[in-house]
Amino acid sequence: MAFNHPNNQSNDEKNRSNQQRLYNPYQDLQIPVQKLYELPTQPEYLFQEESVRQRRSWGENLTYYTGCGYLAGATTGAAKGFVEGVRASEPGDTLKLRVNRVLNASGLNGRQWGNRAGVIGLMYAGIESGIVAVRDTDDVLNSVAAGLATGAIYKAASGPRAAAVAGAIGGLAVGLAVAMKQALKRYVPGGKVTKV
């Protein structure tokens, strides 16, 4: 009994296999194949109430602002520590000692700045969520008031003058962030910016 190797197929068998059509599970739907993979760019919601809500929940806000604050603070502090470590090197230092000095300074400053910025983000998220719950409305005033309160509370132990200055800086910073977000929404085509 002789076995046919796949490479030894006759021309008739090859033509028959070329004429077979592959199964298309979408053939009964009367949809062109090109349309199958056009996915929507807007989020899809199961319930109508979810589509009306345009902001994160208070728990999501807390996590988001704390994490972003810590990351930004740690990155900035590590960069500052890197510069300090490079400047502190002395002419007779070995490479190992210089690297150690840079790593120590970066780690110390990154940790300190990250913790401060994380606490500020945590306070801001909590205050903003509280203001939204009390006012039962979501507008720019909530964000600016939360920035004012966060700055004032963060520097309250340094005295009333420092608290007032920090509150003003916090309110201005949040006001600028909200204005930039609105400008991006308006002037960047197709750009979806999440709530600040």
TrEMBL record:
Topological relation to the membrane, as annotated: Multi-pass membrane protein
Sequence intervals crossing the membrane: none
GO molecular function: protein transmembrane transporter activity
BP GO annotations: protein import into mitochondrial matrix
One cellular-component annotation, GO: TIM23 mitochondrial import inner membrane translocase complex
Compartments (UniProt record): Membrane
Protein name: Mitochondrial import inner membrane translocase subunit TIM23
